[in-house]
Amino acid sequence: MRKTIIAGNWKMNHQRAAVRDTLTALTEQIKGGVKPEVIVAPAFAYLAEAVSLAKGTNVHIAAQNMHFEENGAYTGEVSPAMLVDVGVSHVILGHSERRRYFNETDETVNLKVKAAVAHDLTPLMCCGETLEQRENGKMKVWIEGQIKAGLAGISAADIKKVVIAYEPIWAIGTGRTASAEQAQKVCLIIRNTLAFLYGAAVAEAVPVLYGGSMNAHNVADLTAARDIDGGLVGGASLKAAEFAEIIAKTIVK
């Protein structure tokens, strides 16, 4: 049985007081009962504080990015060893905003995925297509290519440590959401690509999340789909009550 995961990507939002207040309220609201695994990714500056606040709760803390090198002359970067050192357990890699604004490629994402699993960090590797690629019939080939390139050299043992997040670029922060049928179709393409690379049994164990304007109104329909195992939530994760409602309405299979 695959994990069901709801991850909140706070992006470049929330300063210290808001991090403290939101995490404290969130952990209080999601106590008890069978729920999805919950991950929150604050900005780098507050990771150590977030880890401390989440200690002893059922919330895991993720970084939003990292470098693939252990150390060195990489001004402004943060290494996987540094994330482990402050207690981070997960890291988002290859988000479309990183690819768009910071020129990340499938090759650099692949290096980061390898570095993450080598340091026992769980990578949430993102993939997704633009509206133009979807309308031009190139979505399937694009998604397959991102999965194959991003996971190049990752063993069958290590792929079990990876989470895939499908984020249609045309739906991120736009208020537009892929329908459950559209999202399921792409997540099935992802799982079939994993099966091609690793075999069906291994592919069945890898969680595949949906990201792209997920909210409390659509989370149940999306997570009811066979190959969608949760979500990577953006703006809707910034308020504790709203995020807690999403978590509560998530279908845990």
Keywords:
253 residues; alpha/beta; TIM Barrel; 8-stranded parallel beta sheet; 12 helices; globular
Q: Please, could you describe this protein's structure?
A:
- The structure is a single chain.
- The protein is an alpha/beta fold and 253 residues long.
- The chain has one domain: Aldolase class I (TIM Barrel, Alpha-Beta Barrel).
- Helices cover 43% and strands 14% of the residues.
- The protein has twelve helices and eight strands.
- The protein has helices spanning 16-29, 47-54, 80-86, 96-102, 106-118, 131-135, 139-150, 156-159, 180-198, 200-203, 219-224, 240-249; strands at residues 5-9, 37-41, 59-63, 90-93, 122-127, 163-166, 208-210, 230-233.
- Strands 7-6-5-4-3-2-1-8 form an eight-stranded parallel beta sheet.
- α1 runs parallel beside α12.
- The longest helix is centred in the C-terminal third of the chain and has 19 residues, at 180-198.
- The radius of gyration is 17 Å and the shape is globular.
- The model has no long low-confidence stretch (mean pLDDT 96).
- Pathway: Carbohydrate biosynthesis; gluconeogenesis; Carbohydrate degradation; glycolysis; D-glyceraldehyde 3-phosphate from glycerone phosphate: step 1/1.
- The active site is at residues 95, 167.
- It is found in: Cytoplasm.
- InterPro entries: Aldolase_TIM, TIM_sf, TrioseP_Isoase_bac/euk, Triosephosphate_isomerase, Triosephosphate_isomerase_AS.
- Substrate binds at residues 9-11, 173, 213, 234-235.
